[in-house]
Amino acid sequence: MEEVVLNYGSTAWMLVSASLVLLMTPGLALFYGGMSRGKSILNMMMMSFGALAVVGVIYVLWGWSMSYGESIGGIVGNPFDQFGLSGTIYDEAGEFALDSFGVPMIVGVGFQATFAIITVALISGAIADRVKFSTWLVFAGIWATLCYFPMAHMVWAFPAGLLSADGPLATALGTNPIDFAGGTVVHINAGMAGLVLALIVGKRKGFGKEPMKPNSLPLVMLGAALLWFGWFGFNGGSAFEANGLAGLAWVNTTVATCAAVLGWLLAEKIRNGKATSLGAASGVVAGLVAVTPAAGALTPVTSIILGAIAGAACALAVGLKYKLGFDDSLDVVGVHLVAGLIGTVAIGFLATDTGLFFGGGAGQLVVQIIIALVAVVFTGVVTTVIALALKATMGWRIPEEDEVTGIDQTVHAERAYEGITS
Amino acid sequence: MKLITAVIQPHKLDEVKAALEAAGVRGLTVSEASGYGRQKGHTEVYRGAEYTVDLVPKVRVEVLIEDEDATTLTGVVVNAAQTGKIGDGKVWVTAVEQVIRVRTGASGPDAL
Fold first, then answer.
1. What tens digit of pLDDT does each residue of A154-184 get?
2. Interchain CB distance below 8 Å, A211 and B48
3. Residues in Cβ contact with A4 at an 8 Å cutoff, skipping those fewer than 6 apart
4. Does the CB of A214 have a partner CB in chain B at under 8 Å?
5. Which among A369, A366, A253 is positioned nearest to A300, based on CA atoms?
6. Distance from the CA of A281 to the CA of which of A30, A36, A236, A330 falls in 20 to 30 A?
7. Contact A371, A344 (CB under 8 A)
8. Which SS3 state, helix, strand or coil, does residue A396 take?
9. Is the sign of the CA dihedral A336, A341, A344, A347 positive or negative?
C-alpha cells in the first residue's frame, strides 16, 4: 500500500470547512431567534449555543469514538475504543495520524464535531418558547449519544457501518447508499426528532389561536445567509479533499438553493398572493437541506430540479402542522424532515451515474428509500424513549404563567427588547 | 386655552407640521400611536399562516393653542392630513385649565 503523506491543500480546506460548519450553529441561532417571539428570542438562541457547548465537549470525550471507533454490530462505535481521542491523534511513530486523503485525523475530528453540534441545535426549533433550559441541555447530550453518534456510525463509518458505502446493506443489495453530507444523519435525524419532541412536549399556550409572529425578519435573513455560507464547508468539506468534487458540491449547493428560493416564493405567491422575505430565507434552508445528501452525486442542472421541488414542497409542508395540530414551532419537520427525505430519495432518480432517470435502474432508488426509512424509524423510536424518560424525570415544560410572561425573563432573567410583551 | 389632538397617517406628519408652522404654531408634540377605526387592520402572512393585525401604526400630534385659534387650526390640520381614503384619522379639541412653561415659570397664554 502506498504510504499516505500530509496533503497541505486538503488539510487547509478541511480546517476552513470545519470552521465554516461551526459558524452555522450561531447562524442557526439568528435564524431561529428572529423567527421566535420577541419575549423568547434569547432562549431560542441559547438553545443553539447550549447545544454547541454540550455536544462540543462530549464529541471529543466519546462522540468520535462512538461514530468512528471499533464497530459494535455495524450500529455504533465503541465509546471506550478512542475515549477522549486516545489513539486518535498520533500514529505509532508519534506523528500526527493521517486519514486516507492525507489529512490529519484530528482535523477530521473537528470537522465531524461541528456536524453533531448543528444537528442537535436544529431540533430546538420544534420546541421554541416553552421548555426548561436544563432539560434541553441534558437532552442535547443524551440525544447526541444515543441517536446522532449511532446514525453517523451506521452511514459514514465505512465499511463497518450498517448503511455505509461497502457496508452490510450495500453488499447485500449490490448498490452503495449515497448520503454525501448528511441527508439521513443530519436532516432526517433532526427533523424526525423535532416531530417526536413537538408531540411529546406539547403545544405552546395559545398555539393556533393567538398570532405568533417572528420578532425580527432581518435576523432571520442574516441567519439564513450565515447558514448558506457555512454550508459550503458542510457540503464542500464532505469531499474531504480540496478537489473537483468539492467544487462540484459547492456549485450544486448554490444552484439548488437558488432554485429552492424561487420554488418557495412561487408556491407562496400562488397560495397567499405575496412573496415574503421569510419565504425566501426558508427556501434557502430547504434547498440547502435537500442538496446535502446529493451534492456530490448530481449535476448542476439536476441540482436545480431538486432544489425547485424541495422549495415548493416545503412551502406547502409548513402549513401541515396547523391541520394536524402539532406545534413544530419553527418548522423543523416541514423543512428538515421533508427536504431531507426529498433529497435522500431524489438521489435514486437523479444520481448522475446510478439514478433511475439516467439508466441506472431502480437499485439506487431502493437503497435510498431503505436508508431514509431506517433513519426515520431509528430516530423516531430512540427519541421517543429519551423524550418520555425526560418528561417523567426532569419535566419539559416551564410553568404556564412563565411561558406567557416570556421565557427570556422568567428562565434567563434577561430581555432582548424593552416593552415587548408578545 | 385648548389642546388639539390629531391622530393621523404617519406619512402625513411632515405636511401637517409644515401647515401648522405656516399658521403660526411655534411648538407641538409628536408621538407614535397605534389603533384602528373604520379602516380596521391589515393581514400579514408568515410561512402561510395569515394573521389579522387590527392595530395599525398612526402618529399623534398634540398642539396647545389659544381659544380663538381652535377653528382655524383644526381646519389647517384636517386639510393637511386629508387623503380622502379610509384611515385618515381624527382630530379633536379639549379645554386646557392651565399651561406653565417649565424654563421661566410663565403661565397661561404667555406660556404657549
1. 999 999 999 999 999 999 999 999 999 999 9
2. no
3. A98, A99, A100, A101, A102
4. yes
5. A253
6. A236
7. yes
8. coil
9. negative
Asked if the interface predicted TM-score (ipTM) of this complex is over 0.90, the answer is no
If one counts the domains in chain B, the total is: 1
Residues of B in contact with A211 (CB under 8 A): 51, 53
- Say if CB A275 and CB B47 are below 8 A apart: no
Write down the pLDDT at residue A2.
65
The residue segments making up the domain with residue B32 are 2-111
**Structural domains of chain A ordered from first start:** 8-236+243-409 (1.10.3430.10)
Interchain CB contact of A324 with B (< 8 Å): no
CA distance A280 to chain B (A): 10
Residue type for position A59: Y
- In DSSP terms, A131 is beta-bridged to A397
**What's the pTM?**
0.88
Phi-psi category of A174—alpha, beta or left, where left has phi over 0 and alpha has psi -120 to 50?
A: left
Cα A19 off chain centre by: 16
Cross-chain CB nearest to A322 (options B44, B49, B51): B49
What is the distance between the alpha carbons of residues A103 and A13, in angstroms, rounded to a whole number? Answer: 10
Mean pLDDT of A187-197: 98
CATH number at residue B99: 3.30.70.120
